[in-house]
Structures are given as C-alpha cells and as structure tokens.
Amino acid sequence: MKVDEKTLTDMIFRTNHYITWMRDRNGVFKASNQPNSDIFDLTEEEMIGKKADELFDEDVAKLFDEEDNQVMESKKFLYISNREVETPHGRKAYEIFKAPIFDDNDEVVGTFGFGREISNN
C-alpha cells in the first residue's frame, strides 16, 4: 500500500489519542490534533499559527522553545518524563516526546511532538 505524505500525516494526527503537534523552526504551530487543542479549549485550526507564549505562561513557553531548539540543533529525540503546566482545566502533568523534522535535504525544519497526560498516574 502506498500512502502519500499528507495522507499519512493526517492519519497520524486524526487517529491517535496522544496529544500531537508540529512546530516550525520559529516555534509556530503548523499542526495540532484535537486532543492537543482541547487542552487550550481551541480547535485544531485555531492552534495553527500560534506560538508557545500565546498558550503558556512566560517560563513554560521559554522552556518549550529551548527544548525545541535543543532538538533541532542536536537533531536528536528528547524525552520529558514529567512536565507540569497550567492549563484552562487546571494544573496537569504530561509525559512528552519531541523529535526533529527533516526536509528532503536532511535539513531540520521544525519539531514533532506527542505526549500523554499522566496527572492521575
């Protein structure tokens, strides 16, 4: 079965239950699935174009940006075992995975992230 890149990306974002997002080199959300958008009471479409500082307090936004920069510079995967953040639904804890996104020339063009809430675990 051959699946084009856009179809594959759409399938990953729409069918998994983990929070999932993609950000470009400037930290702008380029994709967000509904479980991720629900954290902020936004639609998937409303998440597109936002930056971390529009969603989190200054310290958390700075940390997210620093982690993404680390992932892009190292070109390596990053695992965060317990990230606590304030959301419109209260303080929540998440297990998060971040990875670089490469273009056809093996240049890093952004980050891909996914995670799950672990507040009650």
Any idea of the CATH topology?
Answer: Beta-Lactamase
Instruction: Please give the share of residues in helix.
Output: 25-40%
- Helical segment count: 4
Structural class computed from helices and strand pairing: alpha+beta
Rg, nearest Å: 14 Å
Q: What is the H-and-E element order?
A: HEEHHHEEE
**How many domains comprise the coordinates?**
1
CATH class placement:
Alpha Beta
Shape: globular
What does this structure look like?
The chain is of the alpha+beta class. It has a single domain (5-117), classed as PAS domain (Beta-Lactamase), CATH 3.30.450. It has helices at 5-15, 34-38, 44-47, 58-74, and strands at 19-24, 29-32, 78-87, 90-102, 108-117. It has a 5-stranded antiparallel β-sheet with strand order 2-1-5-4-3. The radius of gyration is 14 Å and the shape is globular.
What can be said about this structure in brief?
Helix content is 31%, strand content 36%.
Task: From the structure above, extract its key features.
121 residues, Beta-Lactamase
How is the secondary structure organized here?
Layout: H1 5-15, E1 19-24, E2 29-32, H2 34-38, H3 44-47, H4 58-74, E3 78-87, E4 90-102, E5 108-117
Antiparallel strand pairs: 1-2, 1-5, 3-4, 4-5
